[in-house]
Design a protein that fits this description.
4 helices, two-stranded antiparallel ribbon
Length: about 230
Amino acid sequence: MPGPYPPPIPPQSGGKGKTIGIVLVIVLVIGALAGGGYMLLGKGGGGGSYTIVLPEKLLDGKYTKKSGSDSNGPKKTNDDKTREHGLTNAEAVAAAYTSDAKVNLNVHGIYGDVSDPKKAVNDMIADLDKSSPGSRFETVTPYTEFHPSGFDGAVLKCNLKKMTSSYGSYSSESRISQCLWGDGSTLGIVVNSSSKSNSSFSSSTGSTADAMTAEELAEATAKIRNEVRKEK
């Protein structure tokens, strides 16, 4: 019989020389399987210069940072792959969060200068589609552009996927919603995920609520972005 769902994987620290492709693809694939979610953050679409401070709680206190899950400060991440996506002078921060309902949200921020945010987001979606375990998931909502209140970036696209499985009397459902956004200084990914099961083996770690829909996560992305940005 399948055992309990594994605990969320802490975000990678993104040390110097690590490519943005490695950081984001590993974060998404491992995070999707283990119940994680990540987001990249930085300046607003209207200009200005910001740092990212990841607080102990997000979304009006609904999500709490997991102990030992943050990246211990910004890390330089400038290399050929980063520049290929049009991102220069980049630094990264990360932290993982969870709700009382054991729905997971991880935040991964890479911020710097983005030459063409819309192209960068589309390129990143293409990269992630190639590397994520897409064949295991059913697309509920394909990538759709959203314009939530309070979001002043150049582009925000979100989707929702789910995976169901059964083994005898055991059944489970994983839901993964994700948003990618870009502006003049950042590329962003937000992944919100839940894993629900009827098995007593997973009762201690399984979610008791569903991950957000694509539209709901778009609204949450705009709120989180505003919560963590600190003007220099």
